[in-house]
Amino acid sequence: MCLIPLIKNVVKKIPVIAAGGIGSGRSMMAAFALGAEGVQIGSRFVLSTESSAHINFKNRILESKEGDTILTLKKLTPVRLMKNEFYSKIQEAESKVPTLMILS
User: How many helices (H) and strands (E) does the chain have?
Assistant: First the structure.
């Protein structure tokens, strides 16, 4: 949350979308008050009744604690995954992808 106004001051006319830890109307309003034009909400929507996510996944989200997830796939598009066997396979595959070099 503390980065929202700083980012907003730098990007000026580009819309800022806040994400991470937003799971209530109060936290969403806080993001707007700090300058965000929108919010991205992941886990909160997954846990909703309307979500088609499997009940085992919903339960795993509910039972998770700080540190049970990790940000990965940063070379492609950052995504937060639970630390499990699937995550390990993704990490292994990602480590084989060379970093793209931009020539100037």
Answer: 5, 4
